[in-house]
Design brief:
single chain, mainly alpha
């Protein structure tokens, strides 16, 4: 008993400190690499296009100078697209990582459990039935996303397996919302279809500078909220009982995290449409590259931005036909989703 209560030796303390320093260095290096990669991809989106402009012209446009041709192509067309890609990637990455960590399940991302489907259905309704656009569409998508998340959460409450039940109910609700979208598209006028179809695939085509500020404000306000609650989020990953024992106010923390994550996902969906699997992929990729035990919210944000930027560049330039960004991310994410479902099924069957 005395040996069990003995204080750790100097060697053990040194090993713990060395391990902590090593994890910290790995996280800093990883985040630096992701940040540099995001900047490079952002620059590529401004430089590349039907006309390739030198970096000097791009920088001149960004500093407010008038450059014939480049001012319109870079300032009006490419810059809003690149900014939207970064902001949407950050929003989806943080939202997905928050849900996955809080519910301790990699399947629990907003696009898998139906939240973005609810926001997307509201956006299509706004476009093809109400003929709204801009801020009105964003507002309706946000309200619908929060309402969808509330319905899913209330339906899944109670019992010991709330997380698993929430995912199953969310998948069902998402299928219902997808059916609503299909019905609205069937009833829509022909001239409304191009804008509405954007919400089915997720696209950066037609991005406008006036659509950037609402999404930017959401990211600037809500991402710090999630980061500040990061310690409590790590405690929630241990389970409600352990989190309560550590002094976490579980209900309040979970509500704040859910509201912030849902709002991020809905603002991004209202701006770009439901870009498939970015929220689903960003967290697991970030967790793998930063290593175990490290906070994953900020790495997931950078990973989400890199995924959207890279997927959009691939969709624009890697094939003979230009594909929306959601098609590329769907191709990347679908195999991983199938793998997770198979692995989960085998674990359940072996238990």
């Amino acid at each position: 008993m005395t040996a069990l209560l003995a204080p750790p030796t100097d060697a053990a303390v040194a090993r713990l400190r060395a391990g902590r320093r090593s994890r910290s260095r790995r996280r800093i290096l990883t985040m630096s690499a992701l940040g540099v990669l995001a900047i490079v991809l952002f620059g590529a989106m401004l430089v590349l296009g039907n006309t390739i402009y030198p970096l000097s012209d791009v920088l001149a446009v960004l500093t407010g100078q008038k450059v014939p041709g480049a001012s319109f192509a870079v300032g009006t067309l490419r810059l809003p697209r690149a900014l939207t890609a970064v902001l949407a990637g950050i929003a989806f990455g943080v939202a997905g990582s928050t849900f996955q960590t809080m519910l301790r399940n990699p399947l629990a991302s907003p696009d898998v459990i139906g939240i973005t489907s609810g926001a997307s259905a509201a956006a299509v309704l706004s476009l093809v039935v109400l003929h709204w656009s801009g801020a009105a569409t964003m507002g309706l998508a946000l309200v619908a996303g929060i309402a969808t998340a509330t319905i899913i959460y209330l339906a899944a409450r109670g019992g010991e397996s709330t997380g698993g039940r929430l995912i199953l109910i969310g998948i069902g609700v998402g299928a219902m919302m997808d059916a609503v979208v299909s019905y609205l598209l069937l009833r829509a006028a022909v001239w409304d279809l191009p804008a509405a179809i954007r919400w089915m695939t997720g696209s950066l085509n037609g991005s406008r500078m006036e659509d950037v500020p609402p999404l930017a404000i959401a990211v600037v306000v809500l991402v710090p909220v999630v980061v500040l609650l990061g310690r409590d989020l790590g405690a929630l990953e241990l389970g409600d009982a352990s989190a309560t024992a550590l002094g976490v106010r579980v209900d309040r923390t979970r509500i704040l995290l859910v509201l912030a994550a849902v709002a991020l996902a809905c603002f991004a969906t209202a701006t770009t449409g439901p870009i498939a699997f970015v929220a689903f992929l960003a967290g697991p990729i970030a967790a793998r590259i930063v290593g175990p035990g490290a906070p994953v919210i900020l790495p997931a944000a950078l990973t989400g931005a890199v995924l959207v930027l890279a997927a959009d560049l691939l969709g624009q330039f890697a094939f003979d036909t230009k594909f929306p960004v959601g098609v590329i991310t769907g191709i990347l994410g679908a195999p991983y989703l199938i793998y997770l479902l198979i692995r989960t099924s085998r674990r359940g069957g072996s238990s």
